[in-house]
Amino acid sequence: MALLITKDCVCCDACREECPDEAIYEHSPIYVIDADLCSECVNDFSEPACIVACPYECIIPDPDNIESIEELKLKNRRNKEL
């Protein structure tokens, strides 16, 4: 599943700098994660880099974008090819 940034986001930029998929962008008033790009850092890190980097703990699993580990791995490989 992709991740979701909650309304508690203060646009500190910590998550965006850490995202290997470049899936995070500013969408006033908060940042947004592009579900088509987010691979939850599968194959890159043991846990999503944005969650680790976020000092406000405002990044959560997106219940509207549920994906299996295999789907996330495929998305990660596709992102690397771009």
Automatic annotation (TrEMBL):
This is Ferredoxin. GO terms for molecular function: iron-sulfur cluster binding; metal ion binding. The keyword Glycoprotein does not apply. Keywords: Iron, Iron-sulfur, Metal-binding. The lineage of its organism: Bacteria, Pseudomonadati, Campylobacterota, Epsilonproteobacteria, Campylobacterales. Signal peptide: none annotated. InterPro entries: 4Fe4S_Fe-S-bd, 4Fe4S_Fe_S_CS, YfhL-like. Residues 1-29 form the 4Fe-4S ferredoxin-type domain.
